[in-house]
Write the C-alpha cells for this entry.
Amino acid sequence: MEPTFFPITGYKPVLISFPNHASAIVLPMSQKRMPACGKAGGEDDANEMNTASALHQDALVFDAHSDTLLRVADKNYQLADRHTEGDMDLPRMREGGLDVAGLAIFVHPRKHEGRIRERTLQLFQALERQLDLNSDLMTLARTTAEAETIVAKGKIAIFVGLEAGDAIQDSLDLLREYYERGVRYMTLTWINSNNWAGSSGESEKKQGMTDFGFKVVEEMNRLGMMVDLSHASDETVRDALRVSAQPMILSHSCSRSLCNIPRNIPDDLAQAIAERGGVVGVNYCLDYLDASFGERIKALRDQFAPREKELREHYKDEPEVLQQHLEALRTERKQAAACFLAARSDYRIVVDHIDHFVRLLGIDHVGLGSDFDGVEYFPSGLEDVTKLPCLTEEMQARGYDEVAIRKILGGNFMRVFRKVIG
Ligand SMILES: [Zn+2]
C-alpha cells in the first residue's frame, strides 16, 4: 500500500491531555505532513530543523535494542570504524546523537543448538574486546547512575540485554552468572517458544509460562534484571504481568492496532504494561510497522525459501561456497523487491506508532528500540543510526513539546531502568 500524505496548510497542533500523565501536544495521525528531514525548505523549515537538531543532540537518546554484536562476533566488525555496511558503529552512533545503546546478546536457538552457552560467552567476549579497544568512546553500564556518568563524559553507555531466554539453559545459576557479567535485561523468548515461555512466533500454540518461567521472572526481579516482553506470546505477557513485582518493558515492539501481526503488542497488554510503570520501545523494522509491506516481503521470502533450502542442503559441507550462493540469492531477492522497496513508507511511520502509544498510554511509557542490525528493511530516511534526528524533527513538527520529546528519546527508558536495575 502506497502511503497517502496530506500536506498541511494552516496547521494547528491539538492539545491532548492524559489523565495522570504530563500532557503533550500531538498532531492527529490523519493530518500527515510532508517529510521535513533533508528537504530544501524556507527559513521556517531551516529554523525548525536547527531547533530539532539541537534538542536531539542535547537530549539523552536511548536505543533499547540492536543486534550489532552479531556483526562484531562473526564479521570482525570493528565498532571504532565507520562502515558502509551494517546499521551502527561508534562514529555513526555519535553522528546520530545516540547516548545509551542497549546491545543484544542474541543466540540463535536452532543454529547454536547444543552449544548455546558457548555461543553466549563468545558474544560476551566479542563485546568485552570492543569495550577494551574503545574505552575512550564507550563503557559498559551496570546501573543508570553509571550510564549517566558515562554519558556526561561524552561517551556512549552500553547496556547488555540477552535476547531469548533459551540462553539460560533452564538454569537460574546461569541467569545469575550472566547478571554478574553485566546483563541487565532479557527477553523471555525469541521467535520460538522455549521450555518455560511461549513466543509470539508460535502464537497458534497459545502457550504462556510454566512454573519454572515464573521462577525465572521472580529471580530477575530479585537480581534487578529487567524483564523484556518483546517476542513473548500474549499468554506469556499475561503470565508475566501476574507474577512480576517490577515494571517490565518491550525493548523493540510496535502496535498491533496499526500493524496486525502477533509479534506486535495489542492495546490492552500495552496498557497493562504501562500501568505497572513499563515502557514500549518502538521498533523500526518495516515488517512490524507496515502490514502491507510485511505481507509483500513475506510472500517474496516464501517464494525464495525452497531455493535457499536446496542450496543449504547441496552445499552443507562447503560453508564458504554456500555463503557465496546465499549472498547471490539475497541479491536476487532484493532486486525482486526493488519495485515496492522504492515506494516503502518513510521514517514518519515510526512516529505514527509513537503517536498511537502516546495516546493510549500517556507520554511516560514510550521509547525507542531500533532493531538495527537485526532486521532487513527499515523505512526510507531511517536506514541507519545517523538518521535518528529525523524522528525528533518529526515529533517536533507534530507538536510534541521538548519535555515530551526528551522522555520518548530516552527519559522513559532511563526511569524504568533506574527503578528495576538501580
Ligand atoms: Zn528481536
